[in-house]
Amino acid sequence: MNKNSSNTMALTPNTSNKRETVCIFGTGDFGRALGHKMIQSGYHVVFGSRSAQTSSLIPKDAEVLSHAEAAQKAAIIIIAIQRQHYDFLAPLAEILHGKVLVDISNNLKINQYPESNAEYLAQVVPGAKVVKAFNTISAWALQSGTLDASRQVFVCGNDVEAKQMVMDIIRALGLTPLDQGSLLAAQQIENYPLQLFPMWKFPVFLSLGLTAFFFFYCLILEVIYPYIYENKDFSFFIAISIPNMVCPILALILLGLVYLPGVLAAIIQLYRGTKYRRFPDWLDKWMLCRKQLGLVALAFAAVHVLYTLVIPIRSFVRWRTSSYTVSQALNNKTVSLNTTNAWLSDSYLALGILGFFLFVLLGITSLPSVSNNVNWREFRFVQSKLGYLTLILCTAHTLVYGGKWFLYPSSYKWYLPHAYMLSLIVPCTVLVVKFVLIFPCLDKTLTQIRQGWERNPKPSE
Ligand code: NAP
Predict the structure, then answer these.
(1) What's the pTM value of the predicted model, to 2 decimals?
(2) Between β-strands 2-3 and 63-65, what pairing exists: parallel, antiparallel or unpaired?
(3) Is 114 exposed, middle or buried (0-12, 13-18, 19+ CB in 10 A)?
(4) Distance 85 CA to ligand 1 centre (A)
(5) Which one of 97, 172, 225, 352 is separated from 122 by 20 to 30 angstroms, measured CA to CA?
(6) What topology does the record note for this protein and the membrane (predicted)?
(7) Spatial CB neighbours of 248, under 8 Å, sequence gap ≥ 6
(8) Atom in ligand 1 nearest the alpha carbon of residue 48
(9) Which residue has a Cα nearest atom 3 of ligand 1?
(10) Which residue has the higher pLDDT, 302 or 10?
(11) pLDDT of 460
């Protein structure tokens, strides 16, 4: 028996409160981090290793033994070893018979092997009860204690009792087990940590597509059209003017798309007269990525603010202002202030500033560290009421700024409407439908449906 001599202190205050012995195969990063956490939680930990030598990295109160010796000391054995080395377990099959083997392994690629690592482990050691767990938690998070965002541990296995034993350990470590069913779920659990921002895919691809579309749309109207018809070279618009058109357009459309699925869901529920039928898959997925859509929209709005701040120092703007002043001097004519235009300009700026302020507030409240500290009603108030107010302010900001183009036929270059007009379609649709939905007759029915009322309830059997 080999007791290692690390000076790592176990935080368990009272050793008489010791829980059962747990065995961990492998003294690598994860094995050590998990062992350390288990000792802190009152477990007696025995490591099974190829070399039963002391190391200052291994928790002080743990034993390090050979695999066969360690396995005999515990009913639960956590396999903190890569899948490709599982073969070494086959000769230990007799000792491992009837034991609970916890597979914590991950792969490098999604669906890397035909069967999950946990199912493979069950094939290598057929007499053992294999449970999949812990693979979504990193060794670093376990060791540093920064588990706030990842307290949930997915668990699956065919033996209910074995699964229960593992879930008890998970709870004792201060984590939350989530039972995912039989070992068939292991492949999905193993793929989970390999996914790259799954909720961000749709918002990112959508915004890339819309950015490309509106960039070329504005390029055609603002650069190519004047070049062909007026022989003017406005190609420098590509650097600031066009991005400063595309960013607010994207921000407004994406903000509209955050609230559109909510009104579509309300229409579907009103039409069906029940909330107990599933929404179509595409709507479910859309609703799940609303936060990401909103954050991408906020990013576009922030870039728009930055672009707007540099407008006064642009060479083109300074040239236009000075040549306008010079032309007034040459013509000996002073153009008096148009108060209507001044009102319009100040109003659209004020709406934009207020809209952006609320937009930032929405973004901040969507952060887990903030949203965890408000109750459900407060969260709904911010995300729904303030969210719609933000949408109204930003839509009004665009309407006041771009509304003038609706009336001038000259703005329809090549019969194409100005890009600002297109950006108003989604938010205006959302606001109009929402306005209709808050009519008392519809709102009352919708509230009843959301409280469980059904227009045509199924007869009870
Ligand atoms: P690691 O640092 O490479 O440690 C693996 C351990 O496996 C080694 O320290 C060694 O322990 C043992 N080992 C290596 N080759 C072996 C062989 N041929 N036969 C028997 N044992 C062998 O890896 P790790 O990061 O701790 O990861 C271990 C497992 O946890 C992996 O399956 C990984 O997917 C999973 N995991 C890791 C993390 C993480 O954050 N690191 C997170 C989730 C899941 P001994 O020298 O003591 O024998």
Answers:
(1) 0.71
(2) antiparallel
(3) exposed
(4) 9
(5) 172
(6) Multi-pass membrane protein
(7) 300, 301, 304, 398, 423
(8) 47
(9) 28
(10) 302
(11) 61
Is 403 in a helix, a strand, or coil? Answer: coil
Between strands 129-132 and 152-157, the pairing is antiparallel
Residues with CB under 6 A from ligand 1: 26-31, 49-50, 80-82, 85, 88, 104-106, 135, 138-139
Burial call 356-373: b when 16+ CB within 10 Å, e when fewer: bebbeebbebbeeeebee
Instruction: Indicate the top mutation candidate among 77, 81, 87 to test ligand 1's pocket, ranked by most ligand atoms within 8 A of CB.
Output: 81
pLDDT digits (tens, 9 = 90+) for 334-366: 888 899 989 999 999 999 999 999 999 999 988
DSSP one-letter string for 313-374: G-HHHHHHHHHHHHHHHHTT--PPP-HHHHHHHHHHHHHHHHHHHHHHHHHHHTSHHHHTTS
**What integer pLDDT is reported at residue 146 of this predicted model?**
60
Nearest to 258 by CA among 237, 214, 288: 288
pLDDT per residue over 76-105, tens digit each?
999 999 999 999 999 999 999 999 999 999
* DSSP line for 14-47: -GGG---EEEEE--SHHHHHHHHHHHHTT-EEEE
CA angle, 229 then 234 then 240, to 5°: 145
Side-by-side strand order, sheet with 100-103:
2-3, 63-65, 44-48, 21-25, 76-79, 100-103, 129-132, 152-157, 176-179
Q: Give CA–CA dist 360/390, Å, rounded.
A: 10
How would residue 148 be classed by pLDDT, with cut points 50, 70 and 90?
Answer: low
- Res. 9: pLDDT tops 70: no
Question: Which tokens is 252 given?
Answer: 């407004």
Indicate the domain borders of the chain: 19-194, 200-326+338-451
DSSP letter for 105, please. -
Q: Which residue has the tokens 């890397």?
A: 112
Tell me how far apart the alpha carbons of residues 158 and 28 are, in angstroms, rounded to a whole number. Answer: 27
Residue whose tokens read 């000259």 = 410
Cα 44 to middle of ligand 1, angstroms: 20
What is the residue with the minimal CA distance to atom 37 of ligand 1? 30
Largest CA distance in the chain: 105
Residue nearest to ligand 1 atom 44, measured at CA: 135
On the CB side of 369, CA atoms within 13 Å amount to 3
Give residues with Cβ within 8 angstroms of 331, minimum separation 6: none
